[in-house]
């Protein structure tokens, strides 16, 4: 027995890092099924230690050496440098960006755009999880590249050889747009998806609408009829998840992709399938390592694998940014794009990522306090109104309402008031936008945990003309 484990240890050390990640995950899948059966998952997760995380960022990041505010830079700039994710503490929410690449670009050997963008988030405290899909034509700010379709972020990162390449720039772009921290990314190619599904004997799906598919790689078209149960192999399952030609277009496709992920999870959890699946690991681990790119380390992959399998299916929710949350438009280059409606997307985000506390739409104010006060947002005021006293007067009023104003600075004149959100705080944002009459188009999600504040308000000439402050 001692020699057996010694041989296993030597083989494991010889594997590359990605192989170790997925080898560990598959072993965990087998172990967790037994663990869950004997109610031991709780004991395992309770032993996870919480690491000390860095403290709050300093205010100086918002100001120059003279104590005055710096205006945002324009034009192309270098994307933020990539850093290795902090080890997961076992209790904080974890969010992963799942990326699939455009098949036509990939097949032609060109630098690909992303074709699928989905956030997977897990709350280990409340034992909940969610999936949130983003349409590829969303018109967003890409760090360092101005505005573009969100699927261009991966292309830009790869084309300009930025730190972390396409996956990292895509992660930064989605993180800034949605306004929540995204720790990890996972990029999968098509053949890897097919191989994984085939190794578990296919997935069981019931379409909610008729879908005409052609098996990936070639084959005759066939119609999967709504309400009928099918067991799809990898190539057919991938075709089902990629099909766009239904009434809901990309939104329908996003829902089918989420359905496929849950079907795969359900298949893995069937105990009778696991021994066969585990026995095939030596034959598929090389394919997995070459077809998947991720910044997730081995320890975190194992912990998250345990947690994901221990969740109750009823506690896994699904969300899609749909056509009611965007405006169909045309870009300056004549491309069809989807312009986000910020209020609606923020509401969806808060629903998906709420884990109790004041971010939840259903949050209740504590005794003697308001939801705005409970959020304890740190607000910076940039006074570009043309009225030199308005910054201080606005600060005094907000302070009297229980809002913490941590700095007031003068900037160049701007006609319209703008709100930039660095870190959540939806109730404070709603209060400020209502008070100052700020339109949705002038409320920007600019997630940045190093900003030194939660919200920055740039006072414009409209606030100088219309405010009712004393």
Mind explaining what this structure looks like?
The protein is of the alpha/beta class. Among the domains are: 229 residues, Nucleotidyltransferase, domain 5 (2-Layer Sandwich); 96 residues, Alpha-Beta Plaits. Strands 11-6-1-2-3-12 form a six-stranded mixed beta sheet, sandwiched between helices. α8 runs antiparallel to α9. The radius of gyration is 24 Å and the shape is elongated. 37% of the residues are buried. Pfam families: LytR_C (PF13399), LytR_cpsA_psr (PF03816). Belongs to the LytR/CpsA/Psr (LCP) family. InterPro entries: LytR/CpsA/Psr_C, LytR/CpsA/Psr_CW_biosynth, LytR_CpsA_psr.
Using the coordinates shown, work out and report the CATH topology of the domain at 2-51 and 86-188 and 280-355: Nucleotidyltransferase, domain 5
| Cα shape | elongated
| Largest sheet geometry | 6 strands, mixed
The helix-and-strand class reads alpha/beta
